[in-house]
TrEMBL record:
It comes from Paenibacillus vortex V453. It comes from the Bacteria. This is DUF4367 domain-containing protein.
Length: 324
């Protein structure tokens, strides 16, 4: 999502499989549920209780669950309903090499067909990719998007407003030499839930029909999609040497997972009136994330240049993005 850096592709490559936690699959880069490994050295979107009368049972179960989770070295943040909205998880396994190579080959082909601002759905006519890879066989329709870079904050702000993108305020409390480089927004694609399920099913049917009725050797079938609403916003900050020294992301969604490496110690932090999670890694920089319950937006700031900011500076930067 060329030469154009794709932040959602970055998040996807850093993503994890956590089926017990996620509600929205991230096969596409049009994500709501952000599952991020910020420490992997590499550079979409569908949304997929029983009450008890014994009031004493619920808090006991919650306490037991939280204690076991904390004992593993992980932390989690709950909303006012007691639901987990941000948490840390163990590092995931990597994609099978064959699957990863094939998906990247077709991704590059699709990207070559797109202009800035264009979104495409595609289907790959390949039994291994769709049925035999043993990793992901539930997502035959995949998505690609080539973002537009907005090199002034004012232009980026206008695009956020036009597409109803999750807002990212112009960050304050920046270290000397760090400034806005560019921003991007990413579209909300067809959903697998609610009223939009029919739209996704129709898209899937069209692409698969093209593939099944084709008499050529072509395996890639692409359809460009119109879009008007955004699901994710990304801001890049430059330190004068790297235009992606710091990444700020915002995504509509319900939950976020962040990978904790064995030598990292996550901690809860207070960001004004919100709780956040702070992760530090000596070799790869820091990360802070929080969840805005009023707007259902997950925010994260990732420092991509080691030593660029310290913890206090990063937390102040995060607080500058939070309304009073």
């Amino acid at each position: 999502m060329g030469a154009i850096l794709d932040p959602i592709e970055e998040l996807k490559q850093h993503s994890v499989t956590d089926d017990h936690f996620r509600e929205i699959d991230i096969t596409s880069r049009l994500q709501q549920n952000m599952e991020i490994n910020p420490y992997k050295n590499t550079s979409g979107h569908r949304s997929f209780t029983r009450k008890t009368v014994m009031s004493i049972v619920i808090p006991c179960l919650l306490l037991a669950s939280f204690t076991a989770y904390a004992a593993s070295g992980h932390i989690q943040i709950l909303n006012n309903k007691g639901e987990v909205v941000v948490k840390t998880i163990d590092p995931p396994g990597s994609l099978p090499a064959k699957l990863s190579g094939l998906l990247e080959e077709y991704r590059v082909r699709v990207m070559s067909k797109l202009q800035q601002g264009e979104l495409a759905a595609y289907y790959i006519k390949d039994d291994y990719i769709n049925e035999g890879n043993g990793y992901d066989t539930l997502n035959p329709v995949k998505f690609e998007y080539r973002p537009t870079d907005y090199h002034s904050y004012e232009a980026f702000q206008k695009e956020q407003a036009r597409t109803s993108a999750p807002p990212i305020k112009k960050p304050g409390s920046l270290p000397d030499g760090v400034k806005f480089a560019y921003g991007q927004v990413f579209p909300l694609g067809p959903q697998l839930y609610g009223e939009e399920r029919a739209q996704y099913d129709a898209l899937k049917q069209r692409l698969m029909h093209q593939a099944q009725s084709s008499t050529s050797q072509e395996k890639l079938f692409v359809e460009k999609l119109a879009w008007s609403k955004a699901s994710n916003s990304v801001v890049y900050l430059s330190d004068g040497k790297s235009s992606t020294a710091i990444t700020i992301t915002a995504g509509y969604g319900k939950k976020a997972s962040f990978t904790k490496l064995p030598d990292t110690s996550p901690e809860k932090v207070q960001l004004k009136h919100m709780e956040g999670i702070y992760l530090q890694h000596e070799a790869n920089g820091d990360l802070v994330s929080w969840y805005d319950p009023n707007r259902s937006i997950v925010y994260a700031i990732m420092v991509n240049v080691k030593g660029l900011v310290n913890k206090d500076e990063l937390l102040k930067m995060a607080e500058s993005l939070i309304d009073e």
